[in-house]
Amino acid sequence: MNYIHWNPPTDIINLGFFAIRWYGMLWGIGLIGATYIVARLFKEYKIADSKFASLFVYVFFGVLLGARLGHCLFYEPTYFFGSFKHFVELLLPIRFLSDGGWRYTGYAGLASHGGVIGLLIALYLYCRQMKMEYLFVLDSIGFAAPFTAMAIRLGNLMNSEIIGKTTDVPWAFVFTHVDPLPRHPAQLYEAIFYAIVFCLGVLLYKKRKEKTTIGSGFFFGYCLTLIFTFRFFIEFIKEVQVDFEHHLVLDMGQILSLPLIAIGLYFLWKSKNKLANKHE
């Protein structure tokens, strides 16, 4: 069959000592796009510009540090905490070479579950600093987050990482950087689903604003529930990321998704009760 042979360059620009990668660029687009969306929401709810100005900084470092630490703690703790050099690789986007040198790699290992945890902590600190309502900020970020998730998964696709299991479906991808086998483009499945979640969220906000008010907890719950429920099931057609997952009934992504789904359902329930009490 004429499968899709996927072999894009990982770098947009490579100067040897420095490179701009598709993954990093799409990650940046996801964060910048979400920042623009949240800025529109803040403006609509008449939140002062001064309170929004530092939000991007909190979100950027919260997500980046959380995602990086999440990957190192959940997937490769033995490697990154096995030596001082490897610990440095946790903090800096470099890899030490056997000849004593090093090369720039970018932050290739980022875990979405860790990113969520880092984001929640960063937003809590932001709300304390700016005297903002935590649930309002969570909802604003939850509204925009599916856009960022879509962009990140497209970055994974460009990197030929987080690949699916072998298959014979007509749209299978052959990830040439990995092996010659046709596989599910799991990253593309996720990117498409997250785009649908984002577009549906926009539609709900515009058409049913009285039931999806920012600050009720609806969009935060909506985002967590749909994204991590899909993440739980899509893992069944993904290759495991690290060897120890071969011995697990559920892989690490599924295990970490379950509490986030539960939190999402709780906030959906909470928003329903909050809005019901408001209209009584």
Concise structural overview:
This protein is mainly α and 280 residues long.
Describe this structure in words.
This protein is mainly α and 280 residues long. The chain contains ten helices and seven strands. Helix content is 61%, strand content 8%. A three-stranded mixed sheet has the order 1-6-7, with no helix packed on it. Strands 2-3 form a two-stranded antiparallel ribbon. The protein has a two-stranded antiparallel sheet with strand order 4-5. The longest helix is centred in the C-terminal third of the chain and has 28 residues, at 252-279. The N and C termini lie far apart (61 Å).
How many strands appear in the DSSP assignment?
A: 7
Provide mean pLDDT, rounded. 86
Number of distinct helices:
10
Low-confidence stretches: none
Given the C-alpha coordinates, what overall shape results? Answer: globular
Measured by DSSP, the beta-strand proportion falls in 5-15%
Order of helices and strands: EEEHHHHHEEHHEEHHH
Strand numbers in spatial order across the main sheet: 1-6-7
Give me the secondary-structure category: mainly alpha
How much is the radius of gyration in Å? 20 Å
The helix fraction, in percent, is 55-70%
Termini separation = 61 Å
Largest beta-sheet characterization: 3 strands, mixed
Task: Please name the defining characteristics of this protein.
two-stranded antiparallel sheet; mainly alpha; 280 residues; single chain
